[in-house]
Amino acid sequence: MLIRPVQVPDLPFLKHVLSTIELFPAHLLEKMIADYWKEGTDHIWLTCEWEEEPAALAYGTPEKFTEGTFNLHAVGVLKDLHRKRIGQALLAYIENLLYERGYRFLIVATSGAPAMERTRQFYLRCGYIHEATLREFWQAGEDKWIFWKKLA
Question: How many angstroms separate the CA atoms of 131 and 21, rounded?
Answer without folding.
Answer: 25
